[in-house]
Amino acid sequence: MKIPVSWLNDYVKVDDLTIDELKDKLLNIGFEVEDVIYLGEGIENVVTAKITKITKHPNADKLQICDMDCGEKGNFVIITAATNVFEGAIVPAALVGAKLVGGINIGQVTFKGVVSDGMLCSGKELGIDGSFVDGGDVDGILILDKDMPVGVDIVKALELDEYILDVSVTANRPDCQSVYGMARETAAALGRPLLPLVLDYETENFEYKNTGIKISASEDCPIYMGSTIKNVKIEPSPKWMRKRLTMVGVRPISNLVDITNYVLMEVGQPLHAFDLDKLNGDIEVRRANKGEVLTALNGENYTLDENTLLIADQSGGLAIAGVMGGKDSGVSQETKNIFLETARFAKGRVRYASRMLGLRSESSARYEKGVDFNCVYTGRERALSLIYELGAGTVAQNFIKAGSGHFEKTIVTNLDKINALLGICVEKRAVLDILTRLGFDVNCSGKMLEIKVPLFREDVDNYTDICEEIIRFYGYDKLEETFLKNAAVTEGGYTPRQKKIEVAKQIMLANGFYESMSFSFIGKKECSLVGADAEQLIKIKNPLSEDYAYMRNTLVPSVLVTAKTNLIRSNKEFRLFEVSTLFKAKALPLTELPEERVALCAVVSAGDFYSVKGVAEEIAQQFSKNFELKRANLPYLHPGISATIVIDGVDAINFGKIHPTVMEKLGVKQELFIIEVDLEYLVGLEDVKKKYQPLNKLPDIQRDLAVTVKEEIEVGALMDAIVTADEKIVKANLFDIYRGEQIEKGYKSVALSFDIRPGEKSLTDNEINGIMDKALGALENLGAVLRK
Amino acid sequence: MIQTINTILNDGLQVIQSAKSQKELLDAKVAVLGKNGSLTSILRNLKSFSAEERPIAGKLVNEARGKLEQAFATKFEELKILELTARLEKEKIDITVPSQKRNMGRLHPMNVVKAKVLEYFVSMGFTVDESPEIETDRYNFDMLNTPVDHPARNLQDTLFVTDKILLRSQTSAGQIRKMEKTAPPIKMVSPGRVYRADEIDATHTPCFHQVEGLVVDKGITMCDLKGILSGFARYFFSADTKTRFRPSHFPFTEPSVEVDASCSACGGKGCRVCKGTGWIEILGAGMVNRNVLSGCGIDPDVYTGFAFGMGLDRITAILYGINDARVSFEGDIRFLKQFD
Question: Which of A381, A489, A498, B170 has the fewest CB atoms in 10 Å of its CB?
């Protein structure tokens, strides 16, 4: 909301405050000034000056030498190429050292042997157009009023010494979406009087085309009023009005349109002027028929539906209520009589039409925020007074009205309740003072307060709203800092599930993995990467793009894309993981909330299967004492270089190398390994019980065996065979696999070590040899031959 | 005879002194004092001396032996130190060769920040609760006192799955879930991912993260809100951080406030981070709206409370000076490693 300080000053004296002081005052009561615009921004050392003499440049046909009288600043010679200058003209002269809009600095320049002490300026160079400065849009030098004194700072001369505050207004305060609304709050904050709006005008008692109004959709339009103005004179509005409209970002058009916009900005009431002579019979406020078409003021055709509110006459649609008027019934240069609409339309209804049609206007923006019943009346009165003041037409004494606008709200509360919520003691006098200044009518007996809410404060419902009004003006700095003085002591902390997720993350960190994040969305393309069917996923109705159309139920594509991002950027070595929520619909389309499961997925570049396996096993061990390993059978993993860790019959962790086909689709050449963990399942498992085992008195005995065995015999099988060969063998380790010259093709040499635990008594050499023989025997059962 | 013993002694001492290594020294020792050593031979041949000479010779031999052994021991220690020094010198390596460490990984900076935020509230007795990311409009809007025609309910602002089911646009839905299942006293924080239909640019991402907070009990005041949240700002930024509370509006709190902290980058003097104001907006808060409490079956005339919500992405960006929101979601290892 743009508020020119000079406009605000019409209704509350603020011109003695600095802009920073004003900003602070507004901030303290909840209005953040997001930007301050200075109309004369960037203009320095430009003065009004009279051209006393023009001579042709001796060496350049297109240049003229102007002798300038700059009043107190002195006399200068300035060269210009402009052709619209003449002797005696008053023009803006940028002297040496001047600054112009857009960061232009002016210095002394020599044009073909003649020195120029500055530059004559156009409107554009001063950041203005013709909207409120005559000649501002002329292609040439800005010719000022012939009576303008010389030597005056151009910022003052053009009345550009104006500050405009861009104020952010919260959604609950539509009443502050206007200069007058902000003035009311400012006056309360400063403890200064709020000056009244001029609402005086004279009327004539005449009847012209008496138009009736019928509201067929009273929920959408509780009140609709129309005023008749005859003999209107369409002309440009006065300069002061054009300037104010320009300052708030509205383009001046002609007096009547400008008045409606001016009132919208000043009071917050949108109005619409119809050409009365173009109306046919009574006006009806109704829902549009499906397919009804209206040509709006902007010349576009809009096809309406039964959810759009329409202002219509007997011939059809006149305006899309609150959004935009129709072209045919609009005010034109030929308009003689008008019908001025002032109404309240439901914000949702206006928003619907605006969004559905993709059509926004100042009016729709305001209606969407909400227009109150006070505003409907004030807006009309202010508009009529301006029409009268500007002599734009003759206002009829009678006006027509349908529906009613009234609500009465009284809040009964007491001081103790207010202070109990605030936590401090605000004295009664302050409470009464604040509320009265804001327009509340307070009846007080003892501590009891009976508060009548003004019409423009539809946001105020109960005593907590009153608390806010009080503390807003009393000052948040008056609140003390207490630490839950009255509250019960409670037990806080993380849930066991949260702690377990954190442990899993810590394991990843300890293994050198960095945590990454990606959006929770997935597209069809990424689904196909892992052979998933997007149709099984939860689809977003209004996705940002096709790539973000579904909620992911796997992290694999996301980490692969992250890996690709890194590889494209030449980050060749990385270990990354992500922990995020997966979404699984119980049935599609969704009728109830889906299952949400936390998952972990890691990706490794420049790694190998066995190091990835180590990480996967470490995670598994954290959550379960026992787990099994099997070959994975997943479309996105290399069938020979991948595995699944099974815990209690559930596939809990998949890991391995990415399938070459997936790599090809992904467009990545470098080997990638992933670990995919169903973390939700793991954190749901019973805690691994830890129990002390007495330490063995006798140390374990280590023995080695090296065997040659066929390639297809897995090392795991050999190790299992050793461990199960004798109960005293507690552990088997691999220490080397060798394939080479001494080994027959199709065979490998496997060197294993194993630990023999003696138990209570030490073992004799014979006993140890017996165990060794058993171990070897078990290996020989698998076709292994002892290497000598 | 005496001369012989003296010669052995002096020669021995000389050999000891000139020994270059432990081995040389030991050889010398054996040659003099060993089983067949020169001095030992004299002792063994003591019988061949006359009765008068014998005691003198014995004494001299023993004296010589003592001196030699002493010299041996001294020289031995000397050589040991010399040889150790030489060995250590020889074993010296180039310590500037780069290490072979395997670095610890790191949490995403946003989760480091999250942990720090939660830590404060957990220390104050807050539970950490989570709630669904896909929510019903009832929990995300209705129960939070959001008007039916509120702009946030539009397809332009919120991502929908069906008319009634949506991607939560705020962690505030977690307040309702907590109040429905738990009777006061309630003290909870609820972190999580939220979604909005925002086009992606340097300051907007369709997924981002919030931490919600809720306190409901008898006698909770706005001063409590101010105390807890000011305390948080001091804990999170620094002990001398100041806070500023200013009026704001949220449908689910009344009164509502916006909380600013004095800029951690410039200490409040005004800089690029705080856009010259000296303040950084860190969270929104307020006293829980009566309609919200009663909607959850909590009597607003008996209980009061406050709620707050903060954007983790924003705070992380401020803390580390991240000027592009998208970077957080790319997973570029060079970004992630900056927080080692």
Answer: A489
CB contact under 8 A, B105 and A29: no
Please check whether residue A451 is in contact with residue A413, taking contact to mean a CB–CB distance below 8 angstroms. yes
The pTM assigned to this predicted structure is 0.86
Q: Tell me whether residues A486 and B247 touch, CB distance under 8 A.
A: no
On whether the CB atoms of residues A513 and A675 are closer than 8 A, the answer is no
Contact (CB<8Å) A351/B130: no
Higher pLDDT, A634 or B265: A634
Q: Domain ranges for chain B, please list them.
A: 2-91, 109-339
Could you tell me the CA-to-CA distances from A665 to A560, A600, A755 in Å, in that order? 11, 23, 47
Probe site for chain B from A173, A307, A421 (most B CB atoms < 10 A): A421
CA distance B281 to chain A (A): 12
Residue that finishes a domain, picked among A623, A655, A684: A684
A574 contacts on B by Cβ (under 8 Å): 333
- Which tens digits make up the pLDDT trace of A722-739? 999 999 999 999 989 999
- Based on the structure, what is the number of domains in chain A? 6
Of residues A357, A376, A367, the one with CA closest to residue A317:
A357
Share of chain B above pLDDT 70, in %: 100
The verdict on residue A261 lying in a domain is: yes
Q: Judge whether A611 is closer than 8 Å to chain B, CB to CB.
A: no
Q: Does A695 touch chain B (CB under 8 A)?
A: no
A509 chain-B contacts, CB cut-off 8 A:
104-107
Task: From chain A, pick out residues whose CB is under 8 angstroms from the CB of B233.
Answer: none
CA atoms within 13 A on the CB side of B273: 23
Tell whether A728 lies on the interface with B, counting CB pairs under 8 A.
no
pLDDT tens, position by position, A324-347: 999 999 998 899 999 999 999 998
Contact status, residue B118 vs residue B191, Cβ threshold 8 Å: yes
pLDDT digits over B28-66, tens only? 888 888 888 888 887 788 777 788 878 888 888 888 888
Minimum-distance CB partner of B248 among A170, A351, A462: A170
User: Alpha-carbon distance B336 to B132, whole Å?
Assistant: 27
Whether residues A516 and B218 touch (CB distance < 8 A) is answered with no
Q: List C-alpha distances in Å: A203 to A197, A234, A284, A391, A513.
A: 18, 19, 26, 12, 81
Mutation target to probe the B interface, by most B beta carbons within 10 A, among A307, A355, A482, A566 is: A482
Identify all chain B residues contacting A19, using CB atoms and an 8 Å cutoff: none
* Model pLDDT for residues A697-723, shown as the tens digit of each residue: 899 999 999 999 999 999 999 999 999
- Reported ipTM: the value is 0.88
Cα–Cα dist A600/A717, whole Å: 30
> Mean pLDDT over residues B251-271, rounded?
92
Asked whether residue A131 falls in the same domain as residue A221, the answer is no
Question: Amino acid identity of B223?
Answer: C
Taking 70 as the pLDDT cut, the residues of chain A under it are none
Instruction: Compute the mean pLDDT over every residue in chain B, rounded to the nearest whole number.
Output: 92
A131 and A76 part of one domain: yes
Q: Does residue A454 belong to any structural domain of this protein?
A: yes
Distance CA A314, CA A448 (A): 55
Q: B109-339 has which CATH code? A: 3.30.930.10
Interchain CB distance below 8 Å, B159 and A542: yes
